[in-house]
Amino acid sequence: VAVHEIGHVLGLSHMNHLGSVMQPNYIPANGKMELGWTDRRAIQKIYGKCSGRFSTVFDWVHQEPDDLGHQVSHYNTYFFRRSWYWRYENSSNRTWYGYPQELKVGWEGIPHADIDAFLHFWTRNKRFTFFFKGKLYWRYDDQNDRAYRQDPEGHIYPRLISEGFPGIGGPIDTVFYDQRDHNIYFFHGRN
User: Fold this and answer.
1) Are 73 and 163 within one domain?
2) Given the residues 5, 64, 108, 163, the one annotated as active site
3) How far apart are alpha carbons 133 and 174 in whole angstroms?
4) Which domain holds residue 74?
5) Which residues bind Ca(2+) 5 (predicted)?
6) Binding site members
7) Is residue 34 annotated as part of the catalytic site, yes or no?
8) CA dihedral 100, 104, 105, 106 (to 10 degrees)
9) What is the pLDDT of residues 113-159, one digit of tens each?
10) HEC profile for 103-141?
11) Count: domains in the chain
12) CATH number at residue 99
């Protein structure tokens, strides 16, 4: 009922569409309630769609403990814009509840705004996650959900991109790890 009334506050009228929260008759929701595409499109018609560039977009398979302490893999797409990020749940075709969030809340130790690029690559024995901004980069500790100040190899972060990736300056626009040839590709502008 509250979501329906909030819909009216936002300017939505009643809709005779099955599953819409704006139906004239109240239909109890079982468990979690979520806006359907009809309701979302109606709101976008009034207020417009999200527009503007994202500074970084990346897919990440991230392991997190469940309620029983077992490691569960989540495949999500992340969208970074200025100091905010969205976690998109690919299996449900929607953002996670409670997003967007501020970078400083979800990504401890990386810059709080305008991340240029993200890199995740792995070998048989190791996984590496990096964030890039300007001429610097940070290695991210997946297990503890924060950037390293000093990694297990003894490197202090942030580091100059040219120190960790000789021949590459900065800033970069994006970076890509190709599993087929095990190479990392850096891009800036059209190069």
Assistant:
1) yes
2) 5
3) 10
4) 56-187
5) 175
6) 173, 175
7) no
8) 80
9) 999 999 988 777 878 999 999 999 999 998 888 999 999 999 999 99
10) HHHHCECCCCCCCCEEEEEECCCCEEEEEEECCEEEEEE
11) 2
12) 2.110.10.10
